[in-house]
Amino acid sequence: MAEAPVTADLSRLPADTVTLLRRLGALARERGTDVYLVGGLVRDLLLDVGSVDLDVAVVGDGPAFARRASEALGGTLVVHERFMTSTVTLEDHTLIDVATARTETYERSGALPRVKPAPIDADLRRRDFTVNAMALQLAPAAFGVLLDPFGGAADLAARRLRILHDRSFLDDPTRILRMARFAARLEFGLEDGTAARLAEALEGRAFEFVSGDRLREEIYLGLNELEPAAVFGRLEAWGALDTLLPGASPGGDLAELEELAGRLIALCEKGATWDPSALRLLLLMRSALPPALDAAARKLNLPPSSREVLKYAPRLPELARAAEAAEKLSNVHKVLRGMPLEVQLAVLVFVGPPEARERVFTYLRGGRGLAPELTGDDLQAMGYAQGPGLKPILEGLVEARLDGAVHNRRDEERWVREHFPRPPLAPSDPSAN
Ligand code: CTP
To answer: Among 111, 193, 375, 401, which residue carries the largest CB count within 10 Å?
Structure first.
């Protein structure tokens, strides 16, 4: 006897989302096809934990359906023809990722797959873990009915991750990193066969077949999880970290350091010139020696700005000690000036005593970008010669500002005359000889 269909409790989702999903199901039916809710949202719905991504899979022409949905719902559309995927952005900024249900074939290990439209069960079969290979029907006649061909719901209940076929990690070794993210985030274990296939893949040096860019993307996703130390701790426990990222240290105080870094990151607006992921990577690699840091930078194809950040790892303890000893903001400035913000924040994370921490924080919040009101031109107008002699004067002004010795232009002029009483003369000035 066939088992009764299981219907997911969609009332756990916001009412607007449910209305949206119903409309998508109806729109697909109008076109004589079916659309399914897939991916992490189905998993998280069954687990009753929050989720953000709205992924749907359409049987047939995904981009054409996405176009129709975008018109009907008043959104904007971006289509990625090569992968037969589209993103619809609604006016309230809701994102819907619309994929064409498909098969994927891997021509070689670690390569990007070749995709071909397929029925929904084939689409689920190409996925990474049973808990991610479930779908919810959105058709009006079967709204919310669960498709679970691989026993994902049972694995969710048993809190374990299971791959769908033996070649899974060979096809796509980045799944090992995904597995670490899910295992850490959901606090799941590995099913025995999956653990055995993992060991084989690591023995076969699976990561060597993956491009640096893909590895970096996956590692950054791990670094941006709520508890990165747990993600990289899993990789270490599985024996995967040595080949992936030699020199990484997820143990010890990383969890604490990451937690503090997370709070600092939330306080700093991400700008064009700084990257929170580079800060997190620096903390993960805090105990690595220069050769391991160089190797990681090359392997992950890091951009020059992140390479520069990583280079500071061996100096962090010494910089933190110097910052702790700094009694004035101008001393903090002398320790940290000219360094990338990621490094300065990492130093702050390492500073222990609350008073010193407060001082470094004050410097980073307000002092770091401080410039004197007087410019080089002003100093020349005051009789100081153009050239390298102006630099110590301007630098001295920054320090005087930081320590509250000057507050405005008049103070600055007075300070300069007092500390540099005899203007250095221009080298071309004949009276200088
Ligand atoms: N997927 C996969 N293999 C990959 C990447 C993705 O099988 N290498 C499938 C999984 O079914 C996954 C879905 O695509 O659930 C969506 O991918 P993604 O958004 O990366 O994963 P989520 O499960 O949604 O994870 P998260 O909660 O981190 O967003």
So the answer is: 401
The H or E element containing residue 103 is strand 102-105
Q: Helix 212-223 vs helix 290-299: angle between axes, to the nearest 10 degrees?
A: 110
Kindly indicate the confidence band of residue 430, based on its pLDDT and cuts at 50, 70 and 90: very low
Does the beta carbon of 132 lie inside 6 Å of ligand 1?
Answer: yes
408 class by beta-carbon count within 10 Å (0-12 exposed, 13-18 middle, 19+ buried): exposed
Q: How far is the CA of 40 from the centre of ligand 1 (A)?
A: 6
Q: Best substitution site from 44, 178, 194 to test ligand 1's pocket, by max atoms within 8 Å of Cβ?
A: 178
Residue nearest to atom 4 of ligand 1 (CA): 128
- pTM across the whole model: 0.89
Question: Residue 286 — left, alpha, or beta (φ > 0 → left; ψ -120 to 50 → alpha)?
Answer: alpha
Give the pLDDT of residue 206: 93
Q: 114-128 b/e with 16+ CB inside 10 Å = b?
A: ebebbebeebbbbbb
Q: Which residue among 105, 128, 217 is best mutated to probe the pocket of ligand 1, counting the most ligand atoms within 8 A of its Cβ?
A: 128
- Beta-carbon contacts of 192 under 8 Å, excluding residues fewer than 6 positions away, are none
Q: What is the pLDDT of residues 136-191, one digit of tens each?
A: 999 999 999 999 999 999 999 999 999 999 999 999 999 999 999 999 999 999 99
Q: Are 161 and 155 in contact (CB under 8 A)?
A: yes
Residue 413 CA to residue 401 CA, distance in Å, equals 12
Instruction: Compute and round to an integer the Cα radius of gyration of the chain.
Output: 28
**Is the pLDDT score of 329 beyond 90?**
yes
First to last CA, the chain: 108
- Residue with the nearest Cα to atom 12 of ligand 1? 39
- The two most distant CA atoms of the chain are separated, in Å, by 108
